[in-house]
Write a structure and sequence with these properties.
It is a single chain. This protein is α+β, with helices and mostly antiparallel strands. Strands 3, 4, 5, 6, 7 and 8 form a six-stranded antiparallel β-sheet that branches.
Amino acid sequence: MASLNPVELAWMAMTAASLMLGLLHLFVWLREHDRLDFLLFSVLAASAAGFGVFELQMMHAATPQASAAAIRAAHVPLAIFVVATAVFVRLHFGTGRSSLLAAIVVLRGATLVLNFTTGVNVNFAQVTDLGHVAFWSGSVVAVPLGPAGRWAWVPQLSNLLLLVFVADAARTLWRRGDAASRRRAWLVGGSVVGCIAATAAAAALTVYGLIALPTILTPAFLLILLAMSVELSGDVLRAAALARELAASEEHLRSVVEATPSAILLIDAVGRIVLANRQAEQSFGIARERLIGRRFETLIPARLRGDHARLRMTHTADLQQRSMGAGRELAALRADGSEFPAEISVAPLRSDRHDQVLVALTDISERRRGEQLVAQQRAELAHLSRVAMLGELSGALAHEINQPLAAILSNAQAAQRYLARDPSALQPVDEALQAIVASDRRASQVIERLRALLRKGEPVREPVDLNELVDDSLRLLRSDLERRGVVVDTELQRSLPPVHADRVQLQQLLLNLIVNTCDAMQSLPPPRPLSIRTHCADGATLCIDVADRGRGIAPADAERVFEAFYTTKAQGLGLGLALCRTIVQAHDGRIGALQNDGGGARLRVELPVRCEHKP
């Protein structure tokens, strides 16, 4: 058996290498059907291998007829290779002129038609003889000789258009500027342009008899395949690295989900649980295996299930993450049927296959208990503050009570004298008795206000008239204001709507503000002006302004004066205004310190309410 020469061995190796590359990338495409560039590469590799077989027949043709037949047959895989190369570049680069691509396809189709209908093939009108040249390692190969076909320019033109198409696409890709695009343009575009330019030039010169060289396209095709394969393999390696990173990220995310203090559940489109973490087991008291496949609504109390299902579907239709508990009572069920307050956040997850919802559920039982404890402590502090304030005002309050008691005693003694002098003098006695009743009522009102302020209990929200509250507070402080030399000017807007609030807390707020403004004017000579104004702003806010003409509040201290234990008084504790802010915030309002235009400070309280301005 004759041994194979080096040329035969080389061409067989290149053909086998092309087939192997094609099979490898075909397997990749079978797993990744969306990567059509891998399928195109397989077609390219198969056509290159087919051309290599016919090219070997050309080089070893024994007769002109055998050479002509091999050239004609080789045009089929060559056309496939040229068209597939253009489509691959367009697909892999994401760019390329459609007009050039269409022209390449049309010209290669025309080449095949002309190849089988004119001459012995499209390159030669006739192969008249065979030349023989020494090739690699002393091997002798055949070279076809004869007149060129009249249509030989058609395949050459398609090769030229392919060259222009690839060069233009590579230039466009290079201009994108990123490293990946430039690497792809240089590696794939450069190899295709270089190899096609060299081989097309050699083929044209051979056809037109300018040089005597065998057809040697297979090595160029293999170089192109290797360049494309390196680029595609880089994509595979990068995809594998990304897959490993995603797997690591998924494992890390799973660890985070397991470690989070909230119960994490993944819900499918019909509301069934497909994933649950360890905290979900602990929160609901149900094993993870029993949670999977269960409808999420079964973990919600029956009275809330309908609303929750509608909310879940609404949130699923919206891509934004949000809390489902805003302004609503939310609760969840444990395995034993007991309820616990919960805060639930949902985040829709979109994918091509199915939609899911990620649910984070937090047991807020401890938070609720903490809020109740804070509210209780705040009420205790408010009560102690009222007691302390009344202690400071004890002298003035005693005067308020002593005045009507002294009047009662004086009128009772006068009535006794009238009756002793003239038993029939009923008119003066009647007037004295009316004065006794009025004074008694006045004393009773003072005592009732004191009892309300000293009373310790839960806050009670009720409609409160702010103007009436201002009048009551000023009556309670009348003697203290007179002692301090404070003159009060009130500007109360008529027909204010009532505010839904705790009356005792609002009166404590007003008393604190008034006493604070009086303290701020101690350095002024009497009379010391104090103004109180109520009005409705913007149809949605009730405002109370308490203003003085004292030393004012520096802008830097406008917020600090409401902090606990901050005070500018020598004997102050710094709790009065801090408690005022607590009361205002408990009523969803705001409090601030402003500068008066004529000097001094103005403390403004804003309480939310829907109201209308009335004349």
